[in-house]
Amino acid sequence: MHVFITGGTGLIGSAVVAELQRHGHSVLALARSEASARAVEAAGAKPLRGALTDLDALRAGAAQADGVVHLAFGNDFSGPDALARAVAEESAAMAVLGEELVGSDRPYVTVSGTPWVSGRPSTEEDPLPLDGPVGGRGRAVNAVLGLAARGVRSASVRLPRTVHNQGKGGFAGLLTDIARRTGVSGYAGDGTQRWPAVHALDAAVLFRLVLENAPAGSAWHAVADEGDRVVDIAAVLGRRLNLPVESVPEETYGPLGPIFAADQPSSSAHTRATLGWEPTHPSLLDDLEHVSE
Question: Are residues 237 and 112 in the same domain?
Fold first, then answer.
């Protein structure tokens, strides 16, 4: 299969590109800069120059592919307006990719976060949030899944709060960055809220399995650790960075504050049983041992 991917040079995307190529697929990757294009070529894939906002480039990439994997996101969490802009840009890109695939029966795999449910781990059957800081993303993903009725084998991989590799990535990575900047390894509230996690190399395997096998309109959970307490994450970071571990105001985390404070464990039981996916790489708390001052 010839696969067009957005976000192919990021922590997750680079792992997905390598996983696809190991299993005989060729990859065309969107590259927003010359440096990204060189990274794509070094990984053995072919670059297509353009940003996520370059809708013509997205159409061209999807038109020449047997399948599409969308991973790119602006990742600007500096304030509510920046986050809303990133969500809007991604939503427009997702819609354009989907329209190009209508009637083709080609696979289209997009991404979201795992939802949170009061009192229990969320499952693949639970709906995505349609309100709040990332509600727009949930609506865009639902629109992609709705393309199943228009001849697209659309599917969504729901990623947990932290996708990690060598101690980097996800919300735990943001905690690390904030700890270095503020001199405190912090957590919101009492820290007993739980975050799910997965190693990037395990997530990459699931993206491939979904691209190859998932039925149209389906959602899957890339969850290895059902829920690590944030206070435990902060404790490892505090020890590795030689910083005090303390509760900090929710506002420390800007527009993501409500999400950082929420208890949001998640299950992947259905995904494992149905697709035969089984994570094999280090857990988040073990992987954070790679963090250093």
Answer: no
